[in-house]
Amino acid sequence: MIQEKIMVNDVLSSVKSNLTCYANTITECANPTLRSAIQQIRNNDEASQYKLFQMAQAKGYYKPALMAKDEEVQQTKSQLTGH
């Protein structure tokens, strides 16, 4: 039987890939009705992914990278925005 940790990480990886596909599809979609439908699907998947991420993190299945310091965030933001 597959361990829960492996299943959770597989689903997180799959949803992450799907979200990338949705983003690419949305940017190429000229039909407003279809675009809206795909955006709603993406939004639902993002909400589900976040709940699963929180559960995985709480159970120790997922360890995110350390958070950047405020000055590092500001430096990167300045570099990207030119300010």
Question: How does this structure look, described?
Answer:
This protein is mainly alpha-helical and 83 residues long. It has one domain (4-81). The protein has helices at 4-28, 32-58, 70-81. Helix 1 packs antiparallel against helix 2 (32-58). The N and C termini lie far apart (53 Å).
Helix vs. strand class? mainly alpha
- The number of domains is 1
Question: Approximately how much helix is present in the residues?
Answer: over 70%
Question: Biggest sheet, in brief?
Answer: none
Secondary structure: elements and pairs:
Blueprint (H helix, E strand, L loop, with lengths): L3 H25 L3 H27 L11 H12 L2
Task: Provide key terms for this protein.
mainly alpha; Coat F domain-containing protein; 3 helices; 83 residues; flat; Spore_coat_CotF-like
In brief:
By secondary structure, this protein is mainly α. Helix content is 77%, strand content 0%.
